[in-house]
Amino acid sequence: MAVYVQFLIDVLSLGSLYALMALGLVIVYGILKLVNFAYGELIMVAGYSLFLLGGTPLPWLVMAAVAVLMAIGAGIATEYAAFRPVRSKSVTAVLITSFAFSTLLQNAALLFISPRARTVPLPDIFSDTVVLFGAIIPLRNILTIVAAAIMLAIFSFIMKKTVLGLAMRAAATKFTMARMLGIPANLVITSAFALSGLLAGVVSLFWLGRIGSVVPGIGLEPLLVAFIATVIGGMRSLQGAVFGGFLLALIVTTFNYLLPPELLKFRDAFTFSLVILILLWRPDGLIQGPATGQRT
């Protein structure tokens, strides 16, 4: 019983992080039809914000709130610096600009802070454990699941019940028509980047809670995870991104539990092989989103 509970919590907590990351990536893709390759650096920005605030007397919750706000600000800055000036240009130009902005942020961290790993302040609750049906569960895993559930509920409310959500869904489905009907394009796109930053900021707190430190290249793994999850779930579907995140977490955790120790170093190879099989079966992802128009 304890093993099953442990497995379930591990899948749900890891899936929560993957789902939120994938959601942040696909919300921008849905409107711009482009992958934001600087998305992983939002986690880096939040991590270094937390590190720099570590020497202050501020309560941890205030530091965490500031770190999330910095991630939102970095998300908006990405839109202004890397996407808006070249939005009407070719896909190649936008992708290169996105990569360049990502590299710029990483090099700024290398130059002005340090290439070494820096420990971030974390509250004691992140290292505490609880016993649940005989399984010893890190409390941070429970917090991750609860935080993800709250974030998904808030996100769902925004998308379904607010004017902003309606405008974003309309823009994601038929952007040109949405603009002709008077929906402010720049406001919708900036809001998408801000929401993306909010999700990345929240994920960063729990991602850092697992590893305890931040380095300039910390955003690469979350970006890769988010990209794979969205491809599995469906690049045009918000529900697909969430589903893809949890499915990827299920695959990774299952291999962690089943593979013998001598094969664990090949876990990523097994995972990606399974992902390839899924994509051969459903090349457009497991959940189809609405048909979309041309790139913005």
Automatic annotation (TrEMBL):
User: Which family is this protein grouped under?
Assistant: Belongs to the binding-protein-dependent transport system permease family. LivHM subfamily.
Q: Which InterPro entries does the UniProt entry name for this protein?
A: ABC_transp_permease (IPR001851), BCAA_transport_permease (IPR052157)
Cite the entry's keywords alphabetically: Amino-acid transport, Cell inner membrane, Cell membrane, Membrane, Transmembrane, Transmembrane helix, Transport
Q: Which CDD domains match?
A: TM_PBP1_LivH_like
What GO terms fall under cellular component here? Answer: plasma membrane
Protein name listed in UniProt: Branched-chain amino acid ABC transporter permease
Membrane-crossing ranges are 12-32, 37-54, 60-81, 93-113, 133-159, 180-208, 214-233, 240-258, 264-281
What subcellular locations does the record give?
Cell membrane
Q: How does it sit in the membrane?
A: Multi-pass membrane protein
Record-level Gene Ontology MF annotations: L-isoleucine transmembrane transporter activity; L-leucine transmembrane transporter activity; L-phenylalanine transmembrane transporter activity; L-valine transmembrane transporter activity
Pfam families recorded for this chain?
BPD_transp_2 (PF02653)
GO BP terms: namely:
D-alanine transmembrane transport; L-alanine transport; L-isoleucine import across plasma membrane
